[in-house]
Amino acid sequence: MKKILFGFLLLSCAAIHAQNVVRYDLYVRDTLVNFTGKEKRAIAVNGQIPMPTLTFTEGDIAEIYVHNELEEETALHWHGLFLPNKEDGVPYVTQMPIKPHTTHKYTFPIIQNGTHWYHSHYGLQEQIGMYGNFVMKKKVDDPTFRKGIDDLPNIPLVLSEWTDMKPENVHRLLHNASDWFAIKKGTTQSYAEAIEQGYFKTKVGNEWKRMNAMDVSDVYYDKFLINGKNESQLVGPLEGAEGRTFKAGDKVRLRVSNGGASSYFWLTYAGGKLTVVANDGNDVEPVEVDRLIIGVSETFDVVVSIPTDNVSYEFLVTSEDRTKSASLYLGNGIKQLTAPLPKLKYFEGMKMMNGMMKMNGDLDDMGMQMSLNQMDMNVVMYPEITGEIAKKNDGRKKVMKHDMEDMKMDSEQYNSNALSEITTLNYAMLKSTVETTLPKDAPVKELHFELTGNMNRYVWSLDNKVVSESDKILIKKGENVRIILYNNSMMRHPMHLHGHDFRLLNGQGDNAPLKNVVDIMPMETDTLEFNANVEGDWFFHCHILYHMMSGMGRVFTYENQAPNPLIPNPKLAQRKLFADDREFHFMAENDFATNGNDGELMFQNTRWSVGTEWRLGYNDMHGYETETHIGRYIGKMQWLMPFVGFDWRYRKLGHNEVEENLFGQKNSKDKRAVFSAGVNYTLPMLVMAQGEIFTDGNVRLQFERNDIPVTKRLRMNLMWNTDKEYMGGLRYIASRNLGITTHYDSDMGFGFGLNANY
User: Residue 380 has what pLDDT?
Assistant: First the structure.
């Protein structure tokens, strides 16, 4: 018996040693980059952005040493990989972050194949360079090996974006509802623009429902990049044919990963169709399309052909908001460009949004069954679809002329492939090459989530709760977990599950595709399911970086699992994790005017607001006043905020002069220091109504509307209250932090000046 056991041990050791150990050393360092003519800080790995492509073959053992040479912590997440939970690389969930000037070893078996990627999961580091491709090849004897696909030359492509602005400042501006990104992108949708284009009624309807101008992308980016370059050329295949240039008839497999922090990208090719052969690292039956949109963190493998010799064909990557693009030219010769995508029709999109949104902030599906990206909520914004209906849809040429604000819509009216000869990929077209059914005898745990949030304060959540307001979700090993997601927000969300692939129920039956990211558009409902087979804590979150940092996620945890040795203090780790969406964002503004000085300071997070306003006169008659309010936002749309406050005022009144408000209440004191309690409520037309009672018994009602978009850069402010005070003013936005102002104040008269903000 001992001999048998010894022999078995020897065989086991031999098998382990037979496995190929592939080691990578990754050195994480600060660097300077210049994408725009200005040197800015970035993070490079092994001296490059993007990070090096890591290549393995299924069956390998990965050993990855991360040498953190930064002055801050970091961690790397292996997106889409099946691995032990402690190797997943999520700070405070699966490990503590890697300390500065230390080395951390990740090691795990490669038990799958396909195109994946890796990135930092610490803070906002992903925005400034920490992303790269992670490719796992099939074994040549793999029974699923597809000739003409899996043996093609591979070109790993990682798409990304760049902003000269610090990502922390980007995040802050998003929470402070700054107009600067819209101004830079040309998407302000002001009243002047609405009148010019014949959409005044639409603009009023938009604000009546308490919506700001719409956008399909949150952030303005200076550059979009393919493998770290805005434009580049590849003259020949990368694998198996080094030194040979492309020739007519050659095919190449593009392994495309969207490593962007917040950008969706349209993919088009000047050389003809894109043949989709894999998605999120999983094989699908080949499907030909003219274009596809790749969600944040998704991967697609597409096969393209070289039609003729001595021509280089443009592979064009265009941001969803169509502000900019990046190009990769395949071939050596005259450049053949693909047609650029037309600009979006924002007011048409606004009109559609008005029809979708109820007065309480919920979305109205207008009688449609939205799912699987088949019904494109942005279809009305795409001129190539709605400008001229294709011949195959002649019988419905007038369909888009209906007033979407006043009538229910047929789902076909949002089906881009029904409206145009351009074939656009949607999830219903994806079919796995193998059956993907789950164990039929396993118990089922069904979970429902509503994707919630609002653009006004940039709060994103599930069921109106952020990560720090929710418990971990318990699941049992062996059960089938079904997740039903409904997007009740105005933004699309790429929802990513760590450590597992899920079946996306898309009408393909037993061959439903396996994915780890699902892009869910407004009004859409999608169903995901997976078998719970790997213990640990697994993050489930929106992969738009700034949505995730705002709290849009959950942590799945297995019941009765062993403690994670890399999380020695779970309570500390939880506090650190919760700190992301509890972070306060700072805003300051000051108007240096000829008739006085006005300003405010504001600290706000997901729920709380602490703000101070002041008015400083230049003489005793004008005096000074400061008001401080501490409030908590209530409700999904956060239109309601109860608060407590303190008001301190000095003003030298004339002899026997008495101030009297609209209710007959008087104030004759030169100095006034009182506490208060009140409530703010956002009315239609985005008017802020404020009711406040002070400890001296006085009551004040106030109505205020700030930042009315008159033109692209001109904003109007209006205020009136029952203390018989009123104000009207204009601000011209000259730059991100400076404006030119003029206003009339009932107390201080007319003035003009310079506005500084942060």
Answer: 57
Residues 299 and 400 in one domain: no
What is residue 531's three-state secondary structure? strand
**Average pLDDT value over all residues in the chain:** 91
Residues 352 and 284 in one domain: no
Residue 314 inside a domain? The answer is yes
Evaluate the omega torsion of the peptide bond into residue 50 and state whether it is cis, within 30 degrees of 0: yes
pLDDT at 238 over 80: no
pLDDT, tens digit, for every residue of 363-413?
A: 886 655 667 766 665 665 666 665 543 333 444 333 333 444 443 445 555
Residue 373's Cα: distance from chain center in Å?
17
Q: Crossing angle for the helix pair 200-208 and 346-356, nearest 10 degrees?
A: 40
Residue 622 lies in a domain: yes
The answer on 84 and 159 residing in a single domain is: no
Whether 514 and 555 share a structural domain:
yes
Q: Give the integer Cα–Cα distance in Å for 466 and 349.
A: 28
Of 280, 327, 325, 271, nearest in space to 303 by CA? 271
Whether residues 664 and 721 fall in one domain: yes
Structure confidence at residue 356 (pLDDT): 82
Lowest average pLDDT, out of 386-400, 569-583, 651-665, 713-727, goes to 386-400
Number of structural domains (the chain) is 5
Residues 616, 503 share a domain: no
Residue 1 pLDDT exceeds 50: no
Q: How far apart are CA 306 and CA 270, in angstroms?
A: 10
Q: Are 136 and 110 in contact (CB under 8 A)?
A: yes
> How does pLDDT run across 171-205, given as a tens digit for each residue?
999 999 899 999 999 999 999 999 999 999 999 99
Note down the domain range covering 41. 17-134
- 3-state per-residue secondary structure call for 426-483: CHHHCCECCCCCCCCCCCEEEEEEEEEEECCCCEEEECCECHHHCCCEEECCCCEEEE
Q: What average pLDDT does the segment 434-450 reach?
A: 97
Question: Is residue 699 a contact partner of residue 663, using CB atoms and an 8 Å limit?
Answer: yes
Res 39 pLDDT > 70: yes
Task: Report helix, strand or coil for 414.
Answer: helix
Domain membership flag for residue 315: yes
pTM above 0.85, yes or no: yes
Do both 655 and 738 map to the same domain? Answer: yes
CATH of the domain at 613: 2.40.160
What CATH number corresponds to the domain at position 30?
2.60.40.420
Token pair recorded at residue 676: 């208060």
- Cβ(624)–Cβ(615) below 8 Å: yes
Whether residue 752 is contained in a domain is answered as yes
Same domain, 739 and 664: yes
